[in-house]
Design a protein that fits this description.
about 160 residues; alpha+beta; Thiol Ester Dehydrase, Chain A; 2 helices
C-alpha cells in the first residue's frame, strides 16, 4: 500500500534545553503532517515547491466536517536534533471505523540523508464530526474510497 509523505520542518522553538525536539513539540509535528494529508487546501494557497500530498478528507473550516482527535499515542525511538531540512513524516490509515479512522505515523530523518533514522512512531484516532450538529458522523463512501489506497497494518509499538 501507499503512504502519504509530508515534509515537516522543525522550528527553533521546538528544541528544548537538551538540544532535541521536545516531546510536546512532537504533537505539533504530527499535527502539521496530518493537516497536510487530511485537510483540503485552496490550490491558490499552495505553491508547487510546498510538495504537499493530496488531502484524503476535507476537514478544513467551511467543509462541514471537523476531524476531532479522540486519542493519541507516541513512542520515541531516537532524539531529533535541530535539522534545517524537513523531516519525512509518513502516514497511513491503520483502521477505518464507522465514524473514525486511526492514522499511523513514522517520523523519519530528512529524505536523502543517510543513514535513515526512524525517530518516532505514533497513532491518532480521528473522529469525523458534523460541524453543524457537533455530532459524530459516518464516513462517506467517497471518504472510504479515498482512504483505501493508504490502508495498511496499524503502527506496531515496542511496548504494549
Amino acid at each position: 500500500m501507499a503512504r502519504l509523505h509530508a515534509p515537516v520542518r522543525i522550528r527553533w522553538s521546538d528544541i528544548d534545553a537538551y538540544g532535541h525536539v521536545n516531546n510536546s513539540a512532537m504533537l505539533r509535528l504530527l499535527e502539521e503532517a496530518r493537516i497536510a494529508g487530511f485537510w483540503g487546501h485552496d490550490p491558490a494557497d499552495v505553491a508547487p515547491e510546498d510538495d504537499l500530498p493530496d488531502p484524503i478528507i476535507d476537514g478544513r473550516p467551511g467543509s462541514g466536517t471537523m476531524t476531532v482527535i479522540a486519542a493519541q499515542r507516541l513512542e520515541y525511538l531516537a532524539s531529533i536534533p535541530y535539522l534545517r531540512r524537513p523531516l519525512d513524516v509518513q502516514m497511513w490509515i491503520g483502521r477505518i471505523g464507522g465514524a473514525s479512522i486511526d492514522v499511523s505515523y513514522e517520523i523519519w530523518s530528512p529524505v536523502g540523508v543517510e543513514p535513515q533514522v526512524l525517530y518516532t512512531r505514533a497513532t491518532t484516532a480521528l473522529v469525523m464530526v458534523d460541524a453543524a450538529s457537533n455530532r459524530p458522523r459516518r464516513l462517506s463512501e467517497a471518504e472510504r474510497a479515498a482512504c483505501a489506497p493508504f490502508v495498511e497494518a496499524p503502527v506496531q509499538f515496542s511496548r504494549p
